[in-house]
Hints:
Layout: H1 2-11, H2 18-23, H3 39-56, E1 66-73, H4 75-78, H5 81-94, E2 101-102, E3 116-120, E4 125-128, E5 143-147, E6 154-158, E7 167-175, E8 182-185, E9 189-196, E10 201-212, E11 214-220, E12 229-237, E13 243-250, H6 256-262, H7 266-273, E14 277-281, H8 284-287, H9 294-311, E15 316-320, H10 335-348, E16 352-354, H11 356-360, H12 366-371, H13 384-405, H14 414-431, H15 435-452, E17 457-460, H16 467-474, H17 478-484, E18 498-501
Parallel strand pairs: 1-13, 1-14, 14-15, 15-16
Antiparallel strand pairs: 2-12, 3-6, 4-5, 5-12, 6-11, 7-10, 7-12, 8-11, 9-10, 17-18
Helix pairs in contact: 5-13, 7-9, 9-10, 13-14
Amino acid sequence: MRVIIILTLLFTCFKINSQEILKDSSVIDYSILPINNSPKLKLAFLKLQKIYKNKTKNNYSSGDSIFTIIHIGDSHIQGDHFSGQIRKQLQSYFGNGGRGVLFPYALAKSFGPRGTILKTNKKWIGEKTLTPNLSNKLGFIGYAAFTNDSNSSIALNFTENFEDSPFKKINIWHSSDSTSYAFKLNNEFKFSENKLNPSGWGISSFYCNTSTNTFSIFPFKTNTKQNHFGFYGFELISDIKYGVNYHHCGVVGSQFTHLINNAPWSIEQIAHLNPDLIIFSFGTNEAYNKDLDTSFYKSSIIKFMHDLEIASPKTAFIFTTAPDTRSQNRIPSNQISVNSLIKKIADSGNYSIFDLNEAMGGWGSIYTWYNKGLTLKDKLHFTEQGYSLQANLFTLSLLEAYNLINFNDSINLNQIRSIVKDTMVSILRNSKNDSLIKILEAHNKKQSIVSKNSTNRIHIVKKGDTISKLCRIYKISQKIILNTNNLSKKSILKIGEKIIITK
């Protein structure tokens, strides 16, 4: 009976629709619904429960004590503000099991990770999943660097701004085909073991007797056939053998199909890590892609997920929808359709979904986030505080779902719940008076009208166009044009404006 009461109370927790809040700011409340628990996510939570119980009892010798998460996405993930805050929150509850595979993005003329200083003595060619005409294979990390000079080297130093340093053990992800150079690290490190895959990539492990905050890679030839070396990333291996090991792999500007089409080692490498949970955070760049083929996009993801499930059958999956954005004040034409598609893919595969867009406050909420200083000026990326809030929204939803499964060993979420609620209530309360919301609602209304009636058409306003002129051209009444387009008799048409012509 007690179980039924608890579950009933949890499930009656509700989230007010953001549009209703916009209509009436006197009704203010905010709470997060748990992420929907797919069968595999439930099993993952049971493993996480064992780790949590062992941590609270200081018992770390029971085995199966590392919970591996891979978070894959675009620039929101590469910067690691969003994924990084999720990692910190989860590791604060379950233990720090590591940061997973990292890549020095400066090798590909990009940014991150924070707190790393890169030095090279020769030219390295950096590639990522968006690189045109890729000449080398990539994996789920999305980046790599290559050299054809056996005298090349890479040196990485970690500053106080880098977490989890110093270290004694390290894994290097690298090319391992028959024509690839051998390599060594600086003299402080000794070789431990390697795992070389027939497809051409491998992982080599090294250890150091004393803690350090630097390492260097030196490729070298062992035979005349060797002509290149590929560096895919590194893992700093902690002595702690319990907790959450959180890999974050983002590529600036990427779409889901870039990972699928341009990183053929992804599934094989993911299967090697045997993750308990994978989080996919794509959709932002797709939302602005005017040439997006939604049918191909959907079928590509479904096939990729099917193949991934075969390779990693115990892994649970969570999709996040794209956050609300307005890059350079552009309305992303595909945002609604892409997020709808992500939800359909998750539903069809029985995967879990976190609706980040709705959690932010829904369509148009980006303007209030911007006014609150939670986004950058581009209204595409967020400030560190904005990403932190998004991460708290996700983490709270995930842990609410965890508590539903493990209600006998539930986690106290009062602190994070209070932070999220207080902040989001403030955001949603202020959003009612934002005039831009009305503009976006009008835009949304136009999109809906056009899609519902295939006989409607769009007129692009040209120089000299007036409402009266359009009435004469299309032989419709002024009242219809005004009502359909949310205009008044005093409205002045702007060149380039889209006007719906309803028959």
